Amino acid sequence: MTEHKARKEDKELLEDESQHSTAEKEESSEQKQESKKDKSHKHSKAEEQLEIAETELLELKDRHIRLQAEFDNYRKRTLKERMELLKTASESLLVSILPVIDDFDRAMQIMDSTNEDNHTKEGINLIYNKFQEFLKQNGIKEIEAKGKDFNTDLHEAIVTIPAPTKELKGKIVDVVQKGYFLNDKVIRFSQVVIGE
Fold first, then answer.
1. What is the per-residue pLDDT for 36?
2. Which of 13, 128, 141, 173 is the Cys-Cys partner for 181 at CB 3.0 to 4.6 Å?
3. CA dist 60 to 51, 55, 56, 90, 108, Å?
């Protein structure tokens, strides 16, 4: 009977061990599943954080590119404005010189009409030529008018007279006051006489 008891105890032991190992197996499989869940949960959280970081990075890159473009546009615009300012900075001074130019032109016409050939005439002619060169260097150019078609963008009609010839009908017969450009901008219109 002791043998039978020993077998029974061994059997019970084996059953306990198998139950215990089954329980351990179940616990280890539960732990594995939990660790898998934890890992997958951690993995999905890491993926979410990575996606958020990538989105933020793309937004920052986009903002940086836009900011660079805005700065470049600002730089170009201010450079253009500065160039325009430099071109027209002396406009008021040059406009106030125009009556002096008119007087100089009249004086030159009177001097050309006299037949005297003296040193004064040569000196004034030299000054006149230097003055004309100064005007060209500063971007002032005379508006061509005499014999041209009347253009309201360039000319101001003062008087209309009967045209001396058919070719001058609707054209400028005489210029009362010269007009001028400053770098392709009209700073004074030509005052003209038009033939009808």
1. 60
2. 141
3. 14, 9, 6, 46, 70
